[in-house]
Amino acid sequence: MAVESMTRERVETRLDDLVRENRFLIAVVFPAMGALLLVASAESLLPGPLNFNPYLILFGTLVMRLPLVAGVAPLTDRRALLAMGALTVYSYGIEYVGTTTGWPYGEFAYGIDLGPMLFGEIPLGLPVFFFPLVLNSYLLCLLLLGDRAKQWFVRLPVVIAAVIAVDLVLDPGAVGLGFWAYDAGGTYYQVPWSNYLGWVLSATVAVGLFDVAFDRTALIARVQRCEFMLDDLVSFVILWGSINAYFANWVPVAIAGLFFLGLVQIERFDFAVVRTVPLIGEKF
């Protein structure tokens, strides 16, 4: 057991170092290049195999998730794994129901494969896309709320509102790219409001399971001292803010700006990642 503990600590330390030493690459370069490649794919400017290459999309997403993975790794125990397993089952289940029945998000269909597709209907990598949207919102709200986050009746609605705000940025950009489309369109950049009612349900389930999975005191302590733990949210702002700007979706761009301000307030988007890049003439 002691050997396993030491091995795990070494792996976690190396992962921390990997992320810390490559913050600019992960949090700025990857989302900026991702936005460029996705827009180029939407305009069919890339060679055929590279247009919306599903494995390239999944790889880029996994890289941008590294700061969050490294951040929660020391807090992940058997209880957390069980809770995440339950959330995985829920995410696959609700997505399958959504694609086959239209409930609760509204009738929609994927326009491109986001990696290997399970049952030919839903992305196998769905948890990689879904979990961080909620967990980043959860962590941001814990820091912004401070002691008020201890009260579930404050924490829950605030995190749900943050998750809805995340999707108010994500969905218009994804629809613009052709990731998916709603059969009946919608008044909000071709997204129906029923989609957001569905997200209230999914966010409530996810927040409840995150509450079960992690010791909130330890989680807050970790995110306070781990400067890169919310870099995935930085990536989100850059990636989807840029994509929405390209499609002139100005409301989502403005909402992405609000996330920028929230990150600035907790000193997580103060361009610290830029300062990790050696200056010209500086020795590596």
TrEMBL record:
Broad EC category: lyase
Species name: Halorientalis brevis
Gene: cruF
TM annotation in the entry: 24-42, 54-73, 80-98, 124-145, 152-170, 196-214
InterPro entries: BABR_hydratase, CruF, CruF-like
Origin: domain of life: Archaea
EC number, UniProt record: 4.2.1.161
Keyword Membrane: yes
Keywords of this entry: Lyase, Membrane, Transmembrane, Transmembrane helix
UniProt protein name: Bisanhydrobacterioruberin hydratase
GO MF, any single term: lyase activity
